[in-house]
Amino acid sequence: MENNMRSRAIVLLSGGLDSTTCLAWAQANYECIALSFMYGQRSTTELDAAKALAQRAGVEHRIINIDLGNLGGSALTDHNIEVPEQLQEGIPVTYVPARNTIFLSYALAAAEVFDAAAIVIGINAVDYSGYPDCRPEFIDAFANLAHLATKAGVEGKPLKIETPLLHLSKANIIRLGIEHGVDYSQTVSCYQADAQGRACGKCDSCRLRQQGFIEAGIADPTRYAE
Q1: Which alpha helices (H) appear in 7-135, and where do they start and end?
Q2: Where does Zn(2+) bind (predicted)?
Q3: FRET label pair with 20: which of 120, 138, 181, 187, CA 20 to 30 Å apart?
């Protein structure tokens, strides 16, 4: 089928491993528009990665500016809260309150504007660090909200929330990305990457990523600061 005949999808692209895998997966199924966020995060080099990845993929890319840093409450948006170097029980301090709800709401608006049939988000219920907004129940609830709160839903064309990574391990996410030609050396997953986009190798995100490459039996191409 020709590309211009396919349905359109809004893909949430952070510049990290999971979202980049989602973009590659989505391109095989949809005409894609990538959406990223400057939300007051500690490291913004992930946005540089997202911009480069979208350009390489040949997809339209929008960066939305919102200020969750003004609220704080997370190690990712408040420099007074340290990013932990040990795995934490329960909901960790790297959880950003309502972040995925806000991101999906913006994606919902974009889907209405650009007449998209789907939103693609790289949440994962296996290696999800305990975040409450990465659970299947959350996605089901948001899909119901989208059905009720949008013109498309009211007119009987409900938006689909695609979560291709939801039940995959990090190793299987990496394998999926490799199948779709993802160059993971271009991605930035670290919670506190330096100005060059080099990873700390110590935070939860780095640890899960490292373990994923080990379990997938694939050499880790991540650039580390140390």
Answers
A1: 17-27, 45-57, 99-113
A2: 190, 200, 203, 206
A3: 138
Please indicate if the annotation marks 166 as binding a ligand.
no
Asked if residues 130 and 92 have their Cβ atoms less than 8 Å apart, the reply is yes
How many residues does this entry show for the chain?
226
The pLDDT of 112-119, averaged and rounded, is 96
> Backbone phi, then psi, for 159, in 5-degree steps?
-70, 140
Crossing angle between the packed helical segments 170-179 and 204-216, to the nearest 10 degrees = 60
Distance CA 117, CA 156 (A): 12
Question: So what's the pLDDT on residue 5?
Answer: 65
Say if residue 32 carries a ligand binding annotation.
Answer: no
* Both structure tokens of 173: 């996410």
134 appears as a binding residue in the annotation: no
Determine if residue 203 is labeled as part of a ligand binding site.
Answer: yes
Q: Kindly report the CATH number that applies to the domain delimited by 6-214.
A: 3.40.50.620
What is the spatial distance between Cα 1 and Cα 31, in angstroms, rounded to a whole number?
A: 11
Query: And the tokens for 94?
Result: 């790297």
- What is the end-to-end Cα distance of the chain in Å, rounded? 46
45 is in an annotated binding site: no
Residue ranges of domains in the chain: 6-214
Q: Are 216 and 171 in contact (CB under 8 A)?
A: yes
| CA count, 13 A, side-chain hemisphere, 178 | 14
